[in-house]
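User: Please fill in residues for this 155-position structure.
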């Protein structure tokens, strides 16, 4: 499995609809500058964190309470050689009931161990999903994790 994309998951008590609403509130859990919309099919938004990371996402699949998929249409990851490593990758949030809880299964398709930003980017995604997004879902806390930089393995 040399081409395995990064995946992580969380379980929460909230409904799939509440989880879906939290995920689409990108500003509530992803630190950095976010411009644009992130809730309905064909919405586009950009993410920027200082000079380290820029990416543009388009929502290409939206099934309320079940699934959200972003296509990264542009990227500039400035702490790796291939600054466009994210371009053309897909970021998926699958929402499902599991034993009286709601599971969020996050996958960044194309973020594989073979690319340079894998360690920093997968660590950052883990933190965002397991900490910031979870807090937003569970407590309604709009407070993304600390600003992330490549020097502390976060983007």
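Assistant: Residues filled in for all 155 positions:
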């Amino acid at each position: 499995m040399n081409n395995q994309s990064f995946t992580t998951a969380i379980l929460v008590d909230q409904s799939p609809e509440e989880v879906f609403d939290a995920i689409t509130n990108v500003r509530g859990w992803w630190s950095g500058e976010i411009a644009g919309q992130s809730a309905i099919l064909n919405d586009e938004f950009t993410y920027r964190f200082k000079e380290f990371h820029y990416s543009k996402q388009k929502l290409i699949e939206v099934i309320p309470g079940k699934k959200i998929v972003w296509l990264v249409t542009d990227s500039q990851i400035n702490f790796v050689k291939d600054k466009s490593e994210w371009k053309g990758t897909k970021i998926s949030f699958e929402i499902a009931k599991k034993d009286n809880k709601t599971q969020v299964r996050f996958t960044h398709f194309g973020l594989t161990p073979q690319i340079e930003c894998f360690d920093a980017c997968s660590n950052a995604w883990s933190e965002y999903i397991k900490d910031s997004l979870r807090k937003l879902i569970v407590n309604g806390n709009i407070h993304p994790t600390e600003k992330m930089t490549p020097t502390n393995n976060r983007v």
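For context: The chain is about 20% helix and 35% strand.
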